[in-house]
Amino acid sequence: MFFSKSCLYTDEIKFLSHIISLHGIEVVFSKVQKILDWPVIRNPAELRAFNGLVDYIAEFIPALTKYSIILSCLTWKGVKFKWTPVEQKVFDNIKLLAQNTTIYNSINYNNIDLIYIITNASNDAISGAITPKEKTIRQCLQPAFIHKH
Length: 149
Hints:
The protein has helices spanning 29-36, 44-56, 64-72, 85-99, 137-140; strands at residues 12-15, 18-21, 24-27, 115-121, 125-132, 145-148. It is α+β, with helices and mostly antiparallel strands. A 3-stranded antiparallel beta sheet has the order 1-2-3. The protein has a 3-stranded antiparallel beta sheet with strand order 4-5-6, with no helix packed on it. A hairpin with a 3-residue loop joins strand 4 and strand 5. It is elongated, with a radius of gyration of 18 Å.
């Protein structure tokens, strides 16, 4: 165990771009800020990148699917990319939803199995996931991210 990489007896910890605290699990604001600062989308590649960022915090945004499916259609094979006022309004609404992100899940201290925090590291890569109790341990083992050295 590396003490420089450990954080014991704390009320708040940052993990996988989330903050886990006494109040619950919430997204790190820098992720939301990237969404808010995103420029107008000009092509499918930019839209895929935007959708990837939005999907990362999707669990925090109620009704996101209602909006994101409209934009996702523009990334489908054989669909011509055309950015109209309808897509711009959806894009703006997603930003508004992201700006109003709330805590994902309050922590119930009477139920210690409420969330799993799983990490893994090797000489080649690191991975990790935060997942609610409702998922099985097998689902938890699928990492939220993988970073290869």
